[in-house]
Amino acid sequence: MDLHQAKNKAGRSADRTAQRAADQPALVFFARAGFIVLGVLHLIIGWIAVRIATGSGGGEASNSGALQTIAEAPGGRMLLWIAVVALVALGLWRLTQLVIGEEAKDKAKGAIMAVVYLSLAFTTSTFARGGSSSDGETASDITATVLAQPAGMVLVIIAGLVVLGVGLHNIYRGATKGFKKDLEAGAGAGHVGSAIIGAGMAGYIARGIAFAILGGLIVWGAWTNDPEKAGGLDVALRTLGAQPAGALALIAVGIGLGLYGLYSIARARYVRM
């Protein structure tokens, strides 16, 4: 057996191993639960955003703020440990896409989303252990550290443009119903209710607006050498709320984020895994 044949055999073996892992009932069950966790977090972030807009409360409109809200609820820390397991499972399931994904973009998306979910699982475990963190402070600290490096401003601007691109892609995905095929792949064409599609449209557009603002703030923070401007989702939403008619805009985005939460919960049922 030559080297090329050995590599092909190893590749096929890795594919089979990844496919078996992706098909494990326990992994699939908890990975679907991971989508529910994401949905709940977005519902809480949307609720916090609306409270900020109406002046009826506050908190940090971010994953950390949502996790803190859950941690403070009766039995919240136990629920967070369940969320950790679900998010780890979702991250591991995404990692299988690196091997069994048919297209390069599927592999790249699998890698990126795996990092996102596993990082969120780590943050969730911090709150489950009774600790705390702030997305805004973490983002500002990272930005400040990068800005202090040679070519740091360029790197932060590039990061901001990437986040801006993600935001614009989300807006496009929501406006064109580009997410619909993900649901129909598991449920079948015509089996996804119009309410779920509507929630997905509003949700993706709202997330897109929030991330686009965040990306712009990161670029501006780099340009002005002010890392506080790159303070995460909470800063982006509060910046939106501070504009003329910003309260109404923030309410609309908050509701949209909540609708994305409902869409994500529905996704747990319909997405093909």
Automatic annotation (TrEMBL):
The chain crosses the membrane at residues 26-50, 78-96, 108-128, 148-172, 204-223, 243-263. Keywords: Membrane, Transmembrane, Transmembrane helix. Residues 33-97, 111-176, 202-270 form the DUF1206 domain. It comes from the Bacteria. Pfam families: DUF1206. The keyword Ribonucleoprotein does not apply. This is DUF1206 domain-containing protein.
